[in-house]
């Protein structure tokens, strides 16, 4: 009976790229026998759209100063054990130059919500990057801002924005964030970013505290219907200086399964095999690719500051030079039959999705 129902649900996901929330939940709860067939199908769909290409984004972690206090995050405001830093404009531009040399055509500027980086500071910086590298994508990942600010940064030349929704369940969101942070505000930011014209990235952690298959089913339905251009998912990993220090990490198995389901629910989505996935398993990113991921985001931050952008315990690549990260990923992707390419790595819509 379980077998019959599972067959019906997986068949529907593969054919229609859509399930009811209850069906997603059932699939997660009974995934044992669905895992391998769905991974195979996710791989097939990925190859149909993106061939053997893996897109790379150079990640520049330009500030670890943050006004927020997300309960899971290692650089949260109340963690006094972090040595805080902020890269200068010159350091950021140097990272871009080095990245360009290494073949990156997308730069991701990520950081905490650092009040120093007002529009007055960011607009000229983005303009410079835009002027210097007209063919590159400029991605921002700097949290929640006013609509006018998103607009100003877009007008300056930023074209993508990563803002994980973290969880699609309002009650769950409240358990992961301190009083004062708002689920609705975050979701509204995603809508504004899209209206302005950014390619947007949503996403969530797998195995975050209090998460059950119910919340995950909501996340999947949200991704299926909102259709963000990118979806970042990786395991939650505890950080020793946060309130969640004793919570268990999310698993490789569930993360890979969800990568496959997301690929099938929204076939064209740009889906990274994240650093967090590479942290919980030495071949996590390769396994992510074999489950349907098609993007990797090697680190371009200066080595001196890397150890201070520790979102969770034991984060990988802390001491590596940017060039090492790049060639390491190149090699890893070759072991799973993929090839890292040098271009912006834009979303490709299938005829059916136009
Ligand atoms: N401040 C920006 C924001 O909030 O969107 C960008 C930086 S924030 C550190 C980037 C992402 O790191 C978050 O969206 C969250 O999902 C992830 N993250 C934070 N702490 C984590 C942890 N302990 N384990 C796994 N991922 C984590
Ligand atoms: Fe701000 Fe994590 S709490 S980046």
Automatic annotation (TrEMBL):
Keyword Iron-sulfur annotated: yes
Amino acids binding S-adenosyl-L-methionine: 166, 186
UniProt cofactor note: Binds 1 [4Fe-4S] cluster. The cluster is coordinated with 3 cysteines and an exchangeable S-adenosyl-L-methionine.
Reported cofactor(s): [4Fe-4S] cluster
Pfam families tied to this protein: Radical_SAM (PF04055)
Alphabetical UniProt keywords: 4Fe-4S, Iron, Iron-sulfur, Metal-binding, S-adenosyl-L-methionine
SUPFAM superfamilies linked: Radical SAM enzymes
Recorded superkingdom: Bacteria
SMART domains, A to Z: Elp3 (SM00729)
Domain Radical SAM core: 52-268
UniProt keyword Transmembrane, yes or no: no
A GO molecular function held by the record: transferase activity
Binding site for (3R)-3-methyl-D-ornithine: 141
Positions of [4Fe-4S] cluster binding: 66, 70, 73
Descriptive protein name: Iron-only hydrogenase maturation protein HydE
Native source species: Eubacterium pyruvativorans
């Amino acid at each position: 009976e379980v077998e019959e129902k599972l067959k019906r649900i997986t068949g529907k996901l593969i054919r229609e790229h859509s399930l009811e929330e209850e069906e997603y939940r059932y699939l997660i709860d009974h995934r044992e026998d669905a895992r391998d067939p769905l991974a195979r199908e996710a791989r097939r769909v990925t190859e149909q759209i993106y061939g053997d290409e893996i897109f790379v984004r150079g990640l520049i972690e330009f500030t670890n100063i943050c006004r927020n206090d997300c309960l899971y995050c290692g650089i949260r405001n109340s963690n006094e054990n972090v040595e805080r830093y902020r890269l200068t404009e010159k350091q950021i531009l140097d990272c871009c130059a080095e990245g360009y040399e290494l073949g990156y055509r997308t730069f991701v500027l990520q950081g905490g919500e650092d009040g120093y980086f007002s529009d007055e500071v960011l607009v000229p910086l983005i303009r410079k990057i835009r002027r210097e590298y007209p063919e590159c994508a400029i991605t921002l990942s700097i949290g929640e801002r006013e609509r006018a600010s998103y607009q100003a940064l877009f007008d300056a030349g930023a074209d993508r924005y990563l803002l994980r929704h973290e969880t699609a369940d309002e009650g769950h969101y409240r358990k992961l964030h301190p009083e004062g942070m708002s689920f609705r505000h975050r979701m509204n930011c995603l809508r504004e970013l899209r209206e302005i014209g950014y390619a947007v990235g949503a996403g969530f952690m797998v195995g975050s505290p209090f998460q059950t298959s119910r919340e995950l089913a909501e996340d999947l339905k949200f991704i299926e219907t909102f259709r963000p251009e990118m979806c970042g998912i990786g395991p939650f990993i505890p950080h020793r200086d946060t309130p969640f220090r004793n919570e268990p990490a999310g698993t490789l198995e569930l993360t890979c399964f969800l990568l496959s389901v997301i690929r099938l629910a929204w076939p064209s989505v740009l889906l990274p095999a994240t650093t967090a996935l590479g942290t919980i398993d030495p071949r996590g990113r390769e396994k992510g690719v074999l489950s349907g991921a098609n993007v990797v985001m090697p680190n371009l931050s200066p080595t001196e500051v890397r150890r201070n952008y520790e979102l969770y315990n034991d984060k990988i690549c802390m001491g590596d030079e940017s060039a090492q990260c790049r060639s390491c990923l190149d090699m890893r992707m070759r072991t799973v039959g993929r090839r890292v390419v040098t271009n912006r790595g834009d979303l490709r819509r299938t005829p059916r999705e136009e």
